């Protein structure tokens, strides 16, 4: 792997997670005037249009299998993931959702092993996973909330984590086809919007563009559409292409950390001692999981060099 591209992959993953960790502020503001489905549809519609402006080149798939994978990526990573996450928040606590969604890296490693013949999750990866989950639990379950199980909401959150893992594995496979990152992301958005149409017909949805006359709403929907959707999905897909599904997915552990820190800076919320301990544990878990993937990469390079010498 090219070292420069490897570095760019880490930077792209870190950037994506940083922006996604701050989107809760924009979503919270927009929920005063829009429904979750309206926010979801408008943000990806804006993102899709922005990607066409950024790269008006058509993407030509070589066979039906490639097109099916693009459709599956749009269904899993855009439509199902966000709809299930949003509905989970209406049934269970946000704390529960944030912790359950954080198990996505575990499912990603499992799917990578089962479907892409990657390495079986080892003790170091599992240790990092458990450490990060404990940290995220400390961040999420404050004294004021506590953990209250709600089977319907918690199951939806778990299903969302699994669909994001599936999305990561699918985009890794799509990355092998050599299509441009922007064109790839745009095609995924197309199918994501297409699969939203049934939900638009069933659930409450109003265009109501007059709401965007409020500069607060306009700024936040543009941030979600251009930044969190168009740009960050492109950088995330690039990271998956360069680093692989497992190494990229462990960055998800950092989302609650960024959320807490950004709330402190932007909303002037105080970080408790419990949250501070949670941040340390979460970052430690991320580093342990990353060291696992790096050591695995080193072993693979050694094997290849040994085979070449023989």
Task: Describe the structure in your own words.
Helices cover 78% and strands 0% of the residues. The protein has 310 residues and is mainly α. The protein has one domain. The model is unreliable at 297-310 (pLDDT under 50).
SSE diagram, text form:
Layout: H1 3-30, H2 36-54, H3 64-91, H4 94-101, H5 104-115, H6 123-140, H7 151-175, H8 181-202, H9 215-243, H10 245-249, H11 255-266, H12 273-309
Helix pairs in contact: 1-9, 1-11, 2-3, 2-8, 2-9, 3-7, 3-8, 4-6, 4-7, 5-7, 6-12, 7-9, 8-9
Helix fraction, binned, reads over 70%
Q: Quick one: biggest sheet? A: none
Intertermini distance: 22 Å
Number of helices: 12
| Derived structural class | mainly alpha
Oligomer: single chain
Count all strands and give the number: 0
Coarse shape: globular
- Count up the domains: 1
A few lines on this structure:
It contains twelve helices and no strands.
Q: Features of this protein?
A:
310 residues, 12 helices, mainly alpha, disordered C terminus
